[in-house]
């Protein structure tokens, strides 16, 4: 019996013990994701579906939904990490997807959030790696980030974790808002501007394949910058949460080479204000067989969301697990 089967079996027993959804009052649960052209939104929609079991729904053992009885979860498109964490902290969202580096900085009140800690942030799970895509027009290339000085560069949306990290990286190579023509756009808007010749490059951190880039590569074509080993080490020293990763050749049409690039973990984050019972139920629903089927048959990145990696990098991040999630992982044997 593998780890997922063990966890799923435990989760199913716990779900059945909770009773049917029909006996519950509805509880609405909002999950902040990202833009429609990225990865957070489709993955967030899958998670929302997986953890939901609306009042009146058939019970899990009768072929119905295997989420939290009475829960109605909704994935909301947002500007991603910074917005989501802020909204979770303020009670405007119950949960959010966010990059690990941004979550740590916001929880501790460090870096770009100096003196502005977000003490209510709690982690439910590590989900998947977000690879940094530095997209260039077809046939174009750069030697390093320094070559973007004086260029028209998409730096992602204000309120996104990508923008926070990218501005740190660019500054390390001497590129700032003062010496480049920056554009604060979401992924779909950036892809459109690049295709129209209005951008020389743009950044976006997401789990591949990214739908807007799939469309761009299939129509106008594009290139991805492959970082040198030395540059990735430099980035890791600057932002430890960004670690070396690879986008395989052939993920995007015409990008028939392996792309070396930094990546950061995407987390599912909630507020400490949520009850232990609710978050325990959400965590168990995240790891049952029904959710496995949804993840495996949805976005390609869903296959990388597993209980084996749910705690990767989490315990040393400096942001606590929610007690409900911690209880589940201990009972499932994933945490000692």
Features:
336 residues, alpha/beta, D-Maltodextrin-Binding Protein, domain 2, ten-stranded mixed sheet, two-stranded parallel ribbon
Describe the structure.
- This protein has 336 residues and is α/β, with parallel strands linked by helices.
- It has two domains: 3-128 and 266-331, Periplasmic binding protein-like II (D-Maltodextrin-Binding Protein, domain 2); 131-264, Periplasmic binding protein-like II (D-Maltodextrin-Binding Protein, domain 2, 3-Layer(aba) Sandwich).
- Helices cover 34% and strands 21% of the residues.
- It contains eleven helices and twelve strands.
- It has helices at residues 3-17, 40-51, 81-90, 100-108, 161-172, 187-195, 211-219, 229-238, 276-286, 289-296, 323-331, and strands spanning 27-32, 52-53, 68-69, 71-76, 95-99, 121-137, 152-154, 181-183, 201-206, 222-224, 243-247, 259-271.
- The strands form two sheets. Strands 1, 4, 5, 6, 7, 8, 9, 10, 11 and 12 form a ten-stranded mixed β-sheet that branches. Strands 2-3 form a two-stranded parallel ribbon.
- The longest helix is centred in the first third of the chain and has 15 residues, at 3-17.
- The chain is globular, with a radius of gyration of 20 Å.
- It starts with a helix and ends in a 5-residue tail after the last helix.
- The relative contact order is 0.19.
- The model is unreliable at 12-22 (pLDDT under 50).
